[in-house]
Amino acid sequence: IAMETEIPFSASPSTLRLSEKFILLLILSAFITLCFGAFFFLPDNSKHNEIFTPRSPVIVEEWFGTAGYTSTEESLRDKIRADHERALQEAKEKLRKSKEELRAEIQTEKTKVAEDLKKKDGPKPLPPVPMPKLVGINDGDPGDPDVKEKRDKIREMMKHAWDSYRQYGWGHNELKPIAKKGHSTNIFGNSQMGATIVDALDTLYIMGLHDEFKDGQEWIEQNLDFSVNAEVSVFEVNIRFIGGLLAAYYLSGQEVFKVKAVQLAEKLLPAFNTPTGIPWAMVNLKSGVGHNWGWASAGSSILAEFGTLHMEFVHLTYLTGNPAYYQKVMHIRKLLAKMDRPNGLYPNYLNPRTGRWGQHHTSVGGLGDSFYEYLLKAWLMSDKTDTEARKTYDDAIEAIERHLIRKSNGGLTFIGEWKNGHLERKMGHLTCFAGGMFALGADGSPDDKAGHYLQLGAEIAHTCHESYDRTVLKLGPEAFKFDSGLEAVAVRQNEKYYILRPEVIETYWYMWRFTHDPKYRQWGWEAAQAIDKYCRVSGGFSGVKDVYSSNPTYDDVQQSFFLAETLKYLYLLFSSDELLPLENWVFNTEAHPLPVLHLGNLTLPGSQDQR
Ligand code: DMJ
Questions:
Q1: What mean pLDDT, rounded, does the chain reach?
Q2: What's the predicted TM-score (pTM) here?
Q3: 478: annotated active-site residue
Q4: InterPro entries annotated for this entry (predicted)?
């Protein structure tokens, strides 16, 4: 037994007792846990960062050598310096901006993020809506062979304008018919968006130029892209592109036009992110940043620009189910309704930051014109249910008649311009569209004044015809006076040009439709012949710089509205009334026909929130 209890000191571990082994094991595992904990869970983890991310110069030097270390260190320092400077600059710019501008910018950013998120889900098919009644979209044979011959001539002119653009300017916005190359203006930014193609599509369609139409459609399918860094005019893009695409969609039924119109409209929406909701004149299609023309009174937006969106935007809401478009234009209308109007007139300038009028200038020509036109057409396009628009139109026209419309000594009715309490006795070519507008609005005017307005339309048509007839080329000048013995003639050299504008022919056409007086076809034919004689060149059609010179020089621009409007109105003038009847179609201000929306029991999304 004694031998068994005496344990020699040099005994091997195997000779340790089980409980001792267990305690040793416990101590060892506690030590290991402590080491791991210290390495991974200490609050300053810079040590292992250094190991995995070589920031320290020593490690960089070890890895890349001294040269690598120095340049990396320097470029790192430069980058940090540049970042700081940029941040400082941005902060300074932000501080300079007003609260409203900052708010508008944040809103633009938010919209952009929301759009980007939407895009990630891929394009969504647009919801089906009942197609409005599409009556009289082709033919329109006038019957009479003489009239038919004239109509064929107009079609031939359209073909010459289109073929020339196809050959020399394809894909550019417009054409230089003398230089035989592409052309553009600042209204389209620095983009090449094929403005002439989009603007011409519906004219090609109604003239039965199907191959040309298909060519245009193919270009649009393959090339028309709105994600471009271009600063465009919201108004021009709306009336020419959105209007053109919507009309092409309704006439042809080709989905691509609707999809493109909606894509583009989404790009215009950030322009409305202003303190008042009155849109900027221009917007960058990529960044969504908007601003106004430098020349406009005190940073103002222009009445004829923000007031000429209604027709297209209502159709966009109708086709997409997205209330945003409708709400934007109704917001503008409500805002205007609340404002004081000097002498009942709408000034041409409105500041989108303050919501106050700029200079008190009123015009039915440039800067004002299509605002009045769209009030009337909003009513017509709604199947005459939008009575608020009709009332606003009637009130505006009443004030215009009182303050702006006069008869000259020679008996010519003209529409002058109101400038700070004074009437300027000058009328623009653009103002000549008003003859057609008065005739179009005659039916439905208050106090049974239909006859009066039809008569007023006829008088304006007559005055504008005189402005053509009193020139050497039989083409009208840009502006003409009724002053000191001069009547319906341009005085200043820089008002003597004719740039293929449509307004006078537009008025002839409306007057023809309402009266069938043959003189309107006669006057239209005179204008068509003069254009063919003096503006036609081998590379298309060009504007001329002086309509009083028998030897005029060309401006070398074939405007897209020549194909969209001038030639379309001429073609309609020599067609039967069955082509695009006015009971079913309303022409936007760029002559793109949009169908009347017989909404019946349908309510536009967004309209409930407005009333
Ligand atoms: C066109 O773009 C439109 O008619 C617009 O309303 C004003 N002017 C040009 C043509 O002159």
A1: 87
A2: 0.82
A3: yes
A4: 6hp_glycosidase-like_sf, Glyco_hydro_47, Glycosyl_Hydrolase_47, Seven-hairpin_glycosidases
